[in-house]
Amino acid sequence: MIQALLTVFFLFPGAYAQAPQGQDAEAAAFVQQILRTPPQKLSQAQVSRFLYRVQPAALPPELQQAYFQRRDVIMGAGLHRKFQAEEEPQAKKKPKPQPPANTAKALLAAGYEEIDSAEFGWLSRETKCTQAQLEEHTTLKVVVELGKDKKKTLRYFLQPKDPLFAAVANYRKGHKDLRGTRLFGTKSSSLCTGKP
Fold first, then answer.
1. How far is CA 168 from the centre of its chain?
2. What integer pLDDT is reported at residue 158 of this predicted model?
3. What is the rounded CA–CA span in Å between residue 42 and residue 40?
4. 16: pLDDT strictly greater than 50
């Protein structure tokens, strides 16, 4: 008799499947509601719940394929992006956080040393790097400050442990050639390949 039951179970596994219970039944009912509603008439809450909260693995097998088909229709129609675009103007109204009033003081307190614009220009020419490349690859920080006449001035800061700061110290002593110093383990003093 047990063998007969096992045979029936393996041949017809759906015969002994239980109806979804609790949250699974709720999710199945919600998916059926979404399947009956045209995609253009779905609300933002319905789309969000359908795409991000329903777990397809918890649905009955006959609903899983229908779930994926409807999900593809919703994604293809761009409904999820439509609702995101509607939310963006509200996010833009929020005020942007203001940077600290004087970042130069904070950098000096953190141990950075200031280099002047002539030293920065020399460093940029010798390494063949732009300001952005130097900021990305080294500890260089650039602070834009407004003067009393609303004129912008740039201040440059480097960490003393940075190899470029050692090059600036040599520049201050009169050694204006970086060739042969092997910056960052390279064979040449060129840190970047582009022109500044």
1. 35
2. 92
3. 6
4. no
Angle between helices 61-77 and 44-52 (to 10 degrees): 130
90: confidence class by pLDDT, cuts 50, 70, 90:
low
**Does the predicted model carry a pTM greater than 0.85?**
no
Helix axes 23-36 and 44-52, enclosed angle (nearest 10): 130
Q: CA 181 to CA 6: how far, in whole Å?
A: 79
Cα(122)–Cα(176) distance, integer angstroms? 8
CA distance 166 to 179: 14
Rounded CA separation 102/116 (Å): 18
AA identity, residue 146: L
Q: How far is CA 93 from CA 87, 89, 90, 182, in A?
A: 11, 7, 5, 50
Do the beta carbons of residue 157 and residue 112 sit within 8 Å? Answer: yes
- Identify each DSSP E strand in 62-183 by its residue range: 113-115, 141-146, 152-158
Cα gap 67→28, rounded to integer Å: 10
> At a CB cut-off of 8 Å and minimum separation 6, what does 192 contact?
127, 128, 129, 130, 133, 137
